[in-house]
Amino acid sequence: MATTTREVTRLATVDLVRKPRSLWEDAWYTFTRDRLAMLGLFTLVFLVIAVVIGPYVYTGTKIIDFTRSLEGPSPDHLMGTDDLGRDLLGRMLDGGRISIAVGFSAVFVAITLGTTVGAMAGYFSTLDNPLMRVTDMFLSLPVLPLLLVLVYLFRETLKALFGPELGIFLMIVFVIGILNWMPVARLVRASFLSLKQKEFVEAARCVGDGDARIIFRHILPNTLSPVLVAATIGIGGAILTESTLSFLGLGFPPDVPTWGRLLFDAKDFIEIAPHWVLFPGLCIFVVVLSINFIGDGLRDALDPRRKI
Amino acid sequence: MGRYIVRRLLIAIPTLFAISFIMYAILALAPIDPLSSFGADPRVPPEVREAIRHSLGLDEPWPVRYMKWVTGMLQGNFGFSFLSHSPVIDLIWQRLPNTLAVVGVAYIVGLVIALPVGMVSAVKRNSIADHIFSTGAYFGFSVPTFFTGLVLIIVFSVKLHWLPFVYNSNLKVEDVGSLAEQLRQSIMPIAVLGLFDAAVFTRYIRAEMLEHLPLDYVRTARAKGLLERLVIIRHVLRNSLIPVVTLVALGIPSVFGGAIVTEQIFHVPGIGELLVRSIFLGDTPVVTAVLMIFAVLVVLFNLLADVLYGVLDPRIRYA
After folding, report:
1. A2-29 pLDDT tens trace
2. Does A154 touch chain B (CB under 8 A)?
3. Residues A158-204: pLDDT tens digits?
4. Considering only CB atoms, which chain B residues are within 8 Å of A278?
5. pLDDT confidence of residue A111
6. Where does the pLDDT of residue A79 fall: very low under 50, low under 70, confident under 90, or very high at 90 and above?
7. pLDDT band, very low/low/confident/very high, at B226 (cuts 50, 70, 90)
8. How much is the pTM?
9. What distance in Å separates residue A133's CA from the closest CA in chain B?
10. Residue A283 above 80 pLDDT?
């Protein structure tokens, strides 16, 4: 009798004990169980693949054909044509590359800047007050108006320096990055302030680690998850900002058909060619929505309070 | 409390000065000459150009110009527009009411929609209504305002012919007919901003109420036999709104950003439209002044958010 009980217990334990998962595996497990987040992830991956490979597969988009201008969707032109008779799907694939690239690069700039400022302010107490004053001041800047002005002022110079496409790309990426690092800096600073009091940092210092090693090896990895969530949501925001700039005519030139630029061109033909407005607009919407779903999923998955 | 407000005001003033300095410096150091429209014209002889520069005071070093500009601004003098030659302050006073009216009404519309929707979403968590509302809110703040605006134009102006899509700024409200016309032309710009605001507020309200619903004081209120309706409205909602007020006030900069876009789509003559137009025309004094107005509005609302937070939440103590 006793043996059977022990046997049952053993079997049950063996069944229950699974391979231990790391923090990231845990997060991934939770994330894959979030249906909306997975839907967002698949949509985003699909769109990224489409804009990366699409222009090679779907060719013949640059043909100008006035006889077929402003046509609605048809088997020849799946999303219709613009005022010069160019295929809209092809232009959207071309421009989508830039739109999405701007989103990722601008967030990279913002995260780098924000993490640096936040880490310095949080770790070195003498820098805390001045750096946070600067952050507060940046938070009080009227972002969109200032963006418009900056783009207008520096457009010609950068065009001359790096060529029309790369120049504008760099400018928009940096301008968006420079005006959006503040929330990240605050997040990182808050994490640094609490983490630097922890025993493991003290232990690291006891074994003789310098400031740089403590910051990069011990504290920074622990602040990654909120930064990751902020970065994800930030990509959506940056894509929106770029399209807003282009929509107001202060973004990319007409030969770079980012989704915002397509809308800017399309809005004068809204009465005769509504399809021209709908497809790029829907694209921006779907990308931003997917990114927000992913961001929310990540937030839940990386939240240590919500463990399964 | 009074001391706290004074201290916050004293912080806000140097912030504004710092912002104005940075913005002026950016404009002054930018590689674009404010007289580039004259400069491109070969018929303008160099000495005339110099004379114009001198008469506008552009030959002085920019820190000097900044000091003059700030002292002028403090006396309500924002300089003169390069193009219309009218005082900038007049241009702004003509247009600011339009912007504030659209933004303000949209904010109220947003709150009126978001309060009941957010409340139902939180109280009936995971019900069908909650799923519909939450998804709607999600869609609402992911969709760019310029796209909502264009879709509304396609549906209500192009297809249905119900609403005009160009805002007629010469319309004077004198009788019932013109009042109806004014309302008709305001519906779409307000709807675009209002729906966006509603989406953002719904999420805030829902999240805050969900934080408060499981707390002990709610159980106490129920235990003493209070009606569920009163528990929700008097206890949960009131407490949840404290952080919402701050978030709402902090959202003001993005709302003014949205106003720029909306004014551009519907041709509403507000300061956002003035800014975009002046940027394209290179009218530096107007651009600087409008930027400054936006900065003042943002700082003002941040201040308001802090003060309101202190007034509403008795737990906050200011040392």
Report:
1. 556 677 666 666 555 667 777 778 788 8
2. yes
3. 777 877 778 888 888 988 898 889 889 988 998 888 888 889 988 99
4. 151, 154
5. 93
6. low
7. confident
8. 0.83
9. 9
10. yes
Q: Residue B119, SS3?
A: helix
Within 13 Å of residue B65, how many CA atoms lie on the same side as its CB? 20
Q: Do A148 and B275 touch (CB under 8 A)?
A: yes
Q: What is the dihedral of CA A251, A253, A256, A257, to 10 degrees?
A: 70
* Measured distance CA(B302)–CA(B293) in Å, rounded: 14
Q: Do B276 and A248 touch (CB under 8 A)?
A: yes
User: Tokens 């975009």 sit at which residue?
Assistant: B276
Residue A97 has pLDDT above 50, yes or no: yes
Beta-carbon separation of B27 and A149 below 8 A: yes
Closest CA to A183 of A150, A224, A230: A230
Residues sharing a CB contact under 8 Å with residue A266, sequence separation 6 or more, in sequence order = A82, A273, A276, A277, A280, B150
CA distances (Å), origin A299, targets A294, B194, B272: 9, 28, 35
| Residue A110: predicted pLDDT | 93
Count of C-beta atoms within a 10 Å radius of residue B47: 8
Q: Which of A136, A145, A260 sits opposite B275 (nearest CB)?
A: A145
Measured between beta carbons, which residues in chain B are less than 8 angstroms from residue A154? 30-31
Say if residue A298's pLDDT is above 60: yes
Answer whether A142 sits within 8 Å of B291, measured CB to CB. Answer: yes
Q: Could you tell me the two tokens for B177?
A: 């007919």
**Inter-chain CB proximity A263 and B150 less than 8 Å:** yes
Contacts of B153 (CB under 8 A, 6+ apart): A270, B165, B188, B265
**Residue A83 — pLDDT band, cuts 50, 70, 90?**
low
Chain A residue numbers with beta carbons less than 8 Å from the beta carbon of B298 are 140-142
A 104-133 near B (Cβ less than 8 A): none
Residues of chain A with C-beta less than 8 angstroms from the C-beta of B279: 148-149, 152, 250
Whole-angstrom Cα distance, residue B52 to residue A294? 56
What are the φ and ψ backbone dihedral angles of A87, each rounded to 5 degrees? -70, 125
> Helix, strand or coil for residue A69?
coil
Q: Do the Cβ atoms of A127 and A194 come closer than 8 Å? A: no
Of all helices (H) and strands (E), which one includes residue A192?
helix A182-195
How far apart (Å, rounded) are the C-alpha atoms in residues A238 and A37? 19
CA distance B220 to chain A (A): 26
Question: Which residue is associated with the tokens 């988009």?
Answer: A61
Give the 3-state secondary structure of residue B87.
strand
- Contacts of residue B88, defined as CB under 8 A and 6 or more positions apart, other chains included, come to B78, B79, B80, B81, B285, B286, B289
Residue A105: per-residue pLDDT: 93
Judge whether A146 is closer than 8 Å to chain B, CB to CB.
yes
Q: Which of residues 228-287 of A touch B (CB under 8 A)?
A: 236, 240, 243-244, 247-250, 260, 263, 266-267, 270-271, 274, 277-278, 281-282, 284-285
**Which of the given ranges, A112-121, A143-152, B14-23, B138-147, has the highest pLDDT on average?**
A112-121
Nearest CA in chain B to A261: B146
Helix (H) or strand (E) holding A24: helix A23-32
Q: For the segment B3-41, what is each residue's pLDDT rounded down to a tens digit? A: 777 887 888 888 888 888 888 888 777 766 666 555 556
Instruction: Report chain A residues whose CB lies below 8 A from the CB of B294.
Output: 142, 145
Looking at residue A308, its pLDDT comes to 46
ipTM of the complex: 0.80
Are A242 and A103 in contact by the 8 Å Cβ rule? The answer is yes
